[in-house]
Fold this protein.
Amino acid sequence: MLIRIRRPSDLRESDVTPEAHFRQRRRLLALAAAAGIGAALPARALVKPPAEGKALPKRIDTDWGRDLEPTDFEDVTSYNNFLELGSGKRAPARNAGSLRTRPWSIRVEGECEKPGVLDIEDLLRMPQEERIYRFRCVEAWGMVVPWDGVPLSKVLARFQPTSKAKYVAFETLHDPKQMPGQKRDIIDWPYLEGLRMDEAMHPLTLLVTGVYGMELPGQNGAPVRLVVPWKYGFKNIKSIVRIRFTEQQPRNTWAVLQPEEYGFYANVNPEVDHPRWSQKYERRIGEGLFARKHRTLMFNGYAEEVAHLYRGMDLRRFF
């Protein structure tokens, strides 16, 4: 579960329904394994220390989580959800070497005046005043992560979305040669996600290119991923190759596969239980299985910043 990082020092902390029952059962078992149900704590292996990664340009620090102790680099980079690189928490780190992140570009299209292509090098060279560095969280597990990113709004504005652009759709790379997890049909590839336009343009929504001051490792979604800190981890689509402005609400993978469990919005709401577990409490990675759990905060603790986006909405229906 995503954790909200409060200013300055307070941290609070699957199965598809396809056409045949046999396929449903097979996918359910695979996705349950990928979700880490009953999984042990993360292994501290198979990853390089941050000193060996390629350093990113100088960035601007923010107040978010400034006084928090980040989760160990080994945990952040060895305990991941990234089905494209394999199910289970350790598989992405083992298989990340097959992912080629250069050259890399993102096609931006749809309801905009200037459709085009965004190269990863353009993102990395964005001016310092547009880059931010703040603690965040990752996946469906409690981690304090020093992300390096660019506000998504700064990037989208370049393509001049029109008044018809009500949503922004995202798509992950689909290439089974690079992504061995895509050789299994546990979901309908490629992975898809979407945001409402006001969510996408919120200053907390980031296109992330780095972690711990270095470029993203493959298992963390290299070379560019989304981070929306008030939502559950499956919204944070990785290895993005396409962004599309749309008038209609786009499809997003988990809401299509399991609509009774995963909605389009995926806002952290501890008052609405998942059909198979409570969401009122969460545990931080690295604290151990017997550590005290932390009460989950509404909108991951970002209610002051984002609650107005959902004013008047029934958050039990639009989950």
The two ends are 15 Å apart (CA to CA).
